[in-house]
Design a protein that fits this description.
The chain is an alpha+beta fold and 126 residues long. The chain contains two helices and eight strands; from the N terminus they run βαββββαβββ. The chain starts with a strand and ends with a strand.
Length: 126
């Protein structure tokens, strides 16, 4: 039986040049709440739906180019990180594994066949 299993869509990440306005929109209009975010070296906010950071906003300097993607990536939470990375190797998919500071999350970053960025999040024990 496979230990790797996708559990759910974890969050959406949106790039914006209007960080404060986006925070206000998603909190005032949709009722999300602003909450804790790791100490990344770029501006942003994590907006929560209940106890889950469902929307990650990333502030960018300067205007976004026309037709430039504003959804930078999407993520799934899963189980079985070692089995998953072995699967990626078998399918010859490049990936990058990263532990998120201040959390128990390990992310495996990859791109799909169209070049879209996604990551699979695994909770580390402890």
């Amino acid at each position: 039986m496979s230990k790797f299993h996708i559990r759910e869509l974890d969050h959406v990440n949106i790039r914006t040049e209007n960080l404060d306005e986006m925070i206000q929109f998603y909190t005032d209009v949709l009722g999300l709440t602003s909450g804790p975010r790791p100490d990344f070296p770029f501006p942003g906010a994590w907006l929560y739906c209940g106890d889950r950071a469902a929307l990650h906003l990333v502030g960018v300097d300067g205007p976004l180019r026309p037709r430039e993607l504003q959804i930078e990536h999407f993520a799934f939470s899963a189980t079985g990180p070692d089995e998953f990375t072995e699967r990626l190797k078998r399918h010859e998919v490049d990936y990058r594994r990263r532990d998120i500071p201040g959390t128990r999350i390990t992310q495996v970053h990859l791109r799909d066949r169209d070049g879209n960025h996604l990551h699979i999040d695994f909770e580390r024990p402890g």
